Protein 1
Amino acid sequence: MRKYLLVAKNTWDEYMQYRLNFVMWRVRNVLRLIIVYFLWYAIFNQRGELFGYNESQILTYILLSSIVASIVFSTKTQDIGEEINSGNLSNLLIKPISVFKYWMARDLGDKLLNIAFSIVEVFVLIIFFKPPLFFQTNPIFIFLFILGIGFSLAIYFLISILIGFFGFWTPDVWGPRFLFYIFLEFFAGSLFPLDILPKPVFSTLQLLPFNYLLYFPVKIYLGQLSILSIFEGFFVGLVWIIVLYLFTNKVWFKGLKSYGAYGR
Amino acid sequence: MKRYINIYIALLKINLASLIIYRANFINSLLSSVSWGIFSILSILLLTSKTTQVYSWSQGEIILLTAMYSIFIGIFHTIFTRNIEKIPELVDRGYFDLILTKPVDSQFLSSVRYFNYTSLSRIVVGIIALVLILIKYNISFSIANLPIYIVLSIFGLGILYNIWFIITTLSFWFTQLNNIHQLMFSIANIGRFPPEAFSQIMGYTFLFILPITLIVISPVKALTNNLNLYDILAPLLFFVGLSFIARKFWLYGLKHYTSAGG
């Protein structure tokens, strides 16, 4: 366990080494949040309710989904494809560590740093703009919200490493990843709550894993899902985790067989 | 000047050849570009579906702005983005020597070496959306204003290029600045929305955002006959001022290039 904590710490230290780069990443996130925030603020202007949300619910959704996005989407797994292509994966394979746990530890370091900054940024924005916010007081919903984030973390980690494994068969690893980011941008629910989409589109999205990354946990926090819907969601999410886990393992071992350690 | 035009034509040919060689890369880029363009327009259509006006802009005008932004950013990505993206890596690894040792201006070569043909698809998506929007929302526009639209678009491209280039020049002092481009994508995104949306952000922040809010808005106003003197002068002044700063800063930065690893 200690060696993985050390990996997490090393990831943190890497960021501290290239501080300006990290600051730019955070500024980018704040800017993105401000754009979405003001867009919704303008659309909501002088309206009591829109798309079934009142102003405090929608602004809470936007700000909270930004924090959840920081927790879920901050990752170092985007480097996996490059590590395979460059042959650097060999450095990991010869060490007495689990490669999967190593990547999880890298993610942990990345996430802790991004969460800390994200919370401070959103807090500053709240003080600065004083938006009307919704505070959930029911401990059951807060507990289920945290559990929902746990599901999001697992699903995102598995999908992200799976995309990295494209590197076993092609040097063009950025293409599938970029397409994945496009789908995330629109179907995870960071720009808008997914239930404002036309019903057939929304129903289809509920079957896909993207919906569990942001939309599902934030909706739990807002208390807009019944306990039955929440457990239905957890069930579908769990099925996705199991399917993705089994598939990721299969692809990993298949990929290792075709791994030629080129460049080493 | 003629020499640089010839060099640019030669670069276009080389890039076309590389496009044909790396076909998987081409298909990936094409899919990504088209999906991004379509989703951007669809999401703004969705968000404005229940409202007739956002600030002083009608729903049709807001969607028109998104389509125009798609065309604008498509042109920018085609000509500049891939080039500017490469600069920090070239400087960091010392490969920038290859640029400096060529008998061509280093800013020119660093800015236009790669021509991203696949981003042309983003322009096509924008143009299709533009035509549909003009018909559906019955937005009147004047063909006579097309020349001023083109001139203001060139100012807009110049403004974005210079801001991006100034920030990227920092890579002569700071290594591993690959997040610069993520930041710039977000900054450029501001151009998609009416400037009034950001009026709450007071003081220096707004001054920083101001030139970006002009890059697409001014040409759009030209096309829809809403142009005033400010919409022409402000982009012109920002373009000239930022071009001067970018050039001076680049030349200053070059003096700090250490060629480490080169």
Protein 2
Amino acid sequence: MNNITLGKYIPLNSFVHKLDPRTKIIAMMILLIAIFIPTGFVGYGIIGVFLLISLISSKLSFSFVWKSFKPSLFMLVFLLVINVFLIKTGDVWLTIGSFNLYSGAVIQTVYIVLRLLLMIIITTMLTATTKPLDLTMGLEDLLSPLAKLNVPTHDIAMMISLALRFIPTLLEEAQRILKAQASRGVDMESGSFKEKIQAILSLIVPLFVSSFQKADDLADAMEARGYVVGAKRVRYKQLKFTFFDFITLVSTSGLLVGLILLRVL
Amino acid sequence: MSIHFEKVDHIYSPNSVFEFQALEDVSLDINIGKITAIIGATGSGKTTLVQHLNGLLLPSKGFLTVNDFTIKADEKPKNIKELRKQVGLVFQFAEYQLFEETLIKDVAFGPKNFGVEEKEAEMIATRALITVGIDPKDFVKSPLELSGGQKRRVAIAGILAMSPSILVLDEPTAGLDPQGAKSMMELFKMLNKEKGITILIVTHNMEHVLEYCDEVVVLEKGKVIMHTDKKQFFKNDQYMEKASIDPPIIIAFKKMCEEKGVTFDSDVLTIDKLVSEIVKKRGRR
């Protein structure tokens, strides 16, 4: 449980940490689009190198990113199995009895793995280098044109930031309840199917009860400090767009344009 | 029967930015059959220490022995279930662990996990709920219908139902009203005296330490800086100051008297005794 790194902010002092959150959000979106431009392994290689450089400049460790990737391994194995049975394009690489393994299946799976890996690196870099509060501010700013269309941009940003804020809290809570139930003899790993269901219930029910309670308390605490839904709010901290943000945006856009050209030409 | 810590270190999230050494070189012998208080400032490692006792946490270095079990670094003790049956651990704000539809089912959950039959588990649960002072007509209620203090009692009953020989309580009275806290401490004392259960209590309440505990372990920044009996502990208050804890009112009163030149014996630890001492001193004048 301690190994879950999803959405966790890592306080370091790096170039990427200091970037404007808006820059990081836009750069993330550009890179996510870039991943879906079908340019084969060359394109993924280019994006990979680009991300490697950004990862190094963000001072995040590789093991941290690997930990974020690990939970999806199971899904990838599942995908591999399905692909192997369903995709019948390309050359036959291996024949076992009446079963043929096609190159298309393997290549397709490798594509998916790479795509997912790159996506996880990108999103992890965003959440690990940006404080949840800054992330909200950035989102709100980027969504602000929609406010003219009466979209409650501030509320949306607030909800997103609260959701992000409570991921670690809920994990901590889950861990605490797991330990408490383990002290009562719950064994999450072994036991019959019925016992396992019971074990999961003993975690989920208290977790739900305490989340609702936390939500209630939070709502009260926010109102007590004068939060009104939909009211106009001013900010203490102002976002600043610097030269480094400019460089970041230009280089990511350049990457996207380059990949599109690679595809078209 | 023993509890022994041998040079135990515990490090959270080693080799990361969040690395934190919670315990450092802890060597400790807890006396069986006593009520031991574990005190120290917030973040001094109290909770980490007690979570080693039933193998929820494993030492990063060193080892500990609890009854016949040895808990070593990086190796889960064999038969950990039996260990958890013998060492009942009540968490801080234990009321959050309740999940069954009725109190009795929730309390019976523990024994059932340890292989007790349904019928018998409910009988054990009934006894445990009566021990902690829950009204039998509430037994079929949902835990959500109870007050906070009652819920906590039910959670404690859930641990007692496993009939542990060692009971570990992590701040069992936090957030309770003074009356509720007092009756809870009375319950622990009763369990200790009548059933001979060894009790460890993590607490911030010095009045409780003075009134109910036999021994005191003081933690500071993950190290055990003192382990002594209650009388010795209250004799010199520098440790209380070190652990940033207010002394109990009697100790504070005695100290004030001493500053004015009136001294009392260090055995005087209850109001009654203090009053009779004062009467004696006045009579002599």
Protein 3
Amino acid sequence: MSIYEAPLNENTPPWPYTVDYDKVNEVTTDVLIVGGGTAGCHAAINARKKGAKVLVIDKANVLTSGCGGSGVDHWHNACTNPASGISPEDQVDEFQNCRKGIATSEYGSRASHYITARESWDALQDVEEWGIDIRDVNDEFVGADFRDEETKLMFAYDYDSRTVVRVQGAYIKKAMHDEMRRLDVQIQNRVMITSLLTAGGKIGGRVIGATGFHIRTGEFYIFKAKSTIVCTGPSTRLWVFSTELVGANSIHDDPNDVGDGNAICYNAGAEFGQMEAGGRTVGGFRYFGYGTGNAHNTWFACTIVDSNGKEVPWVDRDGKEIKNVADRYRLAKGQKMFYHGPPPHPYETQGPTLIHDLAERIESGEFVLPFYADLPGMPELERKAIFGLMVGNEGKTRHGVYEPYTDGGYDPNKHMMQANVLPPEEAGIHKPWWNGQGPPQWRETAFGGGGGLVYDWDCRSTLEGLYTAGNQMLGGGNHSQSASTGRYAGRKAADYALSADQVEVDKSQLSEERERVYAPVKRSAGIGWKEFQAGLCRVMQDYCATYKAEETLKIGLEWLESIKESEGQQVFARNPHELARIMEAFSRLTVGQMIMEASRARKASSRACDFERVDYPEVDPPDWDKYVIIKREEDGVSISDKPCDYWLQEPYASNYAENYDAHNGLDEKTTRVIGEAAE
Amino acid sequence: MSDYNQAYMVTNPLAPCTVVEINPDNCTGCRLCIEVCRTDVLVPNPETLMVPIVLFPDECWFCGDCVAYCPEPDTIKMHVPITEKVGWKDKESGDRYRLGMKNPPPPYTTPPVGWKSVREK
């Protein structure tokens, strides 16, 4: 007998909350929002402004929940800010041009990207109104290359196109939360949603609410709504689950992002696209995000020196050496914008980087390991922008990096931070090689890599009454994308709700769901949630990793189903917290099935999807330049496809602006008046 | 027999480290840290107004929200695990340091840009 399974006795401390698995709570609203992260909050606020009654459900606490819950330091796509050098059309075109075909980043979902490019600056001004400093209000950066003297906005990365704004958003979530409270948005924290309710209980029917349970008290919840916006995060820890590896628990995405949204929408019958896409995980062995020196992302464009203090040169996209620090932040001649990432990146948007042949020059002995990020050698205001502003405000970095590091004696004016190096084949997404990857069978679909809900120009899914925003969308992305699409989806879902009827809930759908959810608490022994979760990961590693083939995917699907009907009926929970972790594993199991179904359907390999079919090795053949679409039906899974620019095809107009203008749902209550921003 | 000869049959540590340390002398038992934790790492102590219990350390995301929201100064400290501790080098002297080392350099006391307490936000 193991200690874990030992019988409970009088010495076992009781659960600290009052538990009542039999209690049923019923709440009715106009707009129900599942997931109160960045997208969910902006959606709630905008739906409320339209006059709808709004209820937000979150598995954690809206005050701090979601990927942006512990801060944000830079805000993308603010193309309409007064200092911007490019238009929304330019930005979308630029990415369209250089990412032809299926794209996996936030830029792949170009309808949502266009919405973002149009509304990102408005959303940022909303945030400013709610109390977040988005400008150099204390004039600490006067004279810096990245500061616009008129607006006091400070830009990151590309100082010419000026669309990425540096913001002091360590407590941005509290600002959103307080605004929701002010507007009387209803919030229900600590409830996990496990199913969507549909009219008549039918798969593919209109979505009329959701069910969930309280992860502290175990009580059951029925939410009846006229429209529902799913704003949940991507599915994390589907291929690797280990609570011993701290790195696996320090990845970008909130650990509550398990794919609940995918599972509930798929089970309700909504269409999903690009679920086969993924990539190698950056978690596992990594350090805290932004906690080591490097030359990209938040640390862009820090000088890197070798063990002897010799500088690693920077080069432009043509490989020509850049002599001074200021030019690392400048566009190449004729370039409209650049992406602050390492090569290989499409030439059109390739920005300055460290020399492209650094690996060879380390191996030849020209540069001696270890490397360091030479913040002391950077101009004072750049140093302060990187460490003081960005590391000081980015998600999880104020109290996770800035505070412990500086308490421990790290002084950015004097000290050069370690900049870890890995061989190029092991390097993470932010080469040169600072991010520890796990073995190749450890993959993920998170951080912009995976698929999501198919949506239209109303940010509506393929089901009536079901809307989506942020990371849950096909090709969802970053903070500004979540905020912008949240605003948009909030307006559209409110418009629908205000004209729709409330539909009665199907009783058998409720009773079946209650039976399913509470089964683990009715068992007193069996399999614990960690074994169950890790077991699913093993199936993903073995049958849906880098090399995919028809037979492996087929076996993988059989195994997931086998685990569901065997071990899945043996998992047991001794408190509502364990029950939540078990239900999360069931969500992941569904997401795993979705990924394997979509992977089987794409009978070609794809660079953009980081997708390798051993039995279909041809990479991105023209016939396969389309989204693979999966949908659950009463009698199985249906597979179809959609063109990569379905949002510019019938019944829509053939250009972005026309679609946006026709569908955006803005009215006098939700439109930002130009020049209205707080100074 | 000395006390240290008394051994116990206990399970292994749940996580590689203690994720948060709460100073019992300063903690007022207000439970705000419990409310902001996204994974319920902390749960209320059955004894009211007592220091919360770190029940699920293996689920900590190291976001530091409990630290941010604690109203009492120097009460909650996030414990950076050894695996996540970094090193650095003094540019002038070449001296090497490690987070958590014995006799570290003095703290760098400049706050981050835009620093204010979460309660002022």
